[in-house]
Amino acid sequence: MGGPDRRAAALAAGDATAPGAPAPDDPRPPARVGGLVLAAGGGRRFGSPKQLALLDGRPLLEHALLAMATAKRVGHTVVVLGCHADEILARVELHGAEPVICAGWEEGQAASLRAGLQALAAASDAIVVTLGDQPAIDARAIDRVVNARDGVSAAVRAAYGGRPGHPVLIEHELFERVAGLEGDEGARRLLSGVAVALVDCDGLGDDGDVDTVEQLRVTAGGLSSPSRSAAPLRAPSAPRSPQP
Predict the structure, then answer these.
(1) Closest of 31, 197, 198, 196 to residue 127, by C-alpha
(2) Average pLDDT for 60-70
(3) Which CATH code for domain 32-222?
């Protein structure tokens, strides 16, 4: 999902909301918006690979990937992995995202951003970024952020109750800035001193992250409803030892 096949099928069907599709009378070529999900961290506060912790019947990371895959305005998507990459690849459905392994993941979020940008930059006019530990990000919020590109702002951010958050879209003019980020520098440093458009995404999910098991429990409660029963909440189990 989210790749050239979905775009081609939507355009063939005359879907003006296909990823990057211009309006029927718009002479410009389709915009190329890449998706980037950052999920390389070690989850030290969680105590185990939080990307694999079950939430509503899916691994935590899969929620972020599914949101990006179902966003109508996003084309090629990359997910950056680092710690526990092999186990994540074996157990998480990527929904069409291309996995990129960040060997320097221990440096912090900047290394993941650089790795993801390197994979997407050549084929993208803009990149929309979410985090793999934000399971309540909504595809509609991603689309709203992409649709808010105004040709003037260097970035677009979702806002919840007036608070800037994710998704964050960065225009091509900021790509070179990413190369200069270090350590845990992320959106705040990248967007410092540039024009940023804020887009109200109230009612379209939220960008709360999950750093601890208790936060996972709170998030699970928020996802539950009388018509939607969450699967039992549990942290990922350790891999079994091979049988003799």
Answers:
(1) 31
(2) 96
(3) 3.90.550.10
Name the residue ranges covered by the structural domains of the chain.
32-222
Which H or E run includes 147? helix 139-147
Bond into 167 cis (ω within 30):
yes
Q: Please provide residue 127's backbone torsions phi and psi, each rounded to the nearest 5 degrees.
A: -135, 130
Going through the chain in order, the beta strands assigned E by DSSP cover 33-39, 54-55, 58-59, 77-81, 98-101, 126-131, 155-160, 163-171, 196-200
C-alpha to C-alpha distance for 69 and 58, rounded to whole angstroms: 15
Q: Is 64 in contact with 24 (CB distance < 8 Å)?
A: no
Distance of alpha carbon 239 from alpha carbon 77, whole angstroms: 28
**pLDDT per residue over 191-237, tens digit each?**
888 999 999 999 999 998 887 788 888 888 766 433 233 333 444 54
pLDDT band with cut points at 50, 70 and 90 for residue 48: confident
C-alpha 154/C-alpha 152 separation (Å) is 7
Q: For 90-104, how does the pLDDT look when each residue is reduced to its tens digit (9 = 90+)?
A: 999 999 999 999 998
Helix or strand run (H / E) with residue 85:
helix 85-91
pLDDT digits (tens, 9 = 90+) for 164-179: 999 999 999 999 888 8
Q: What are phi and psi of 100, to 5 degrees?
A: -125, 125
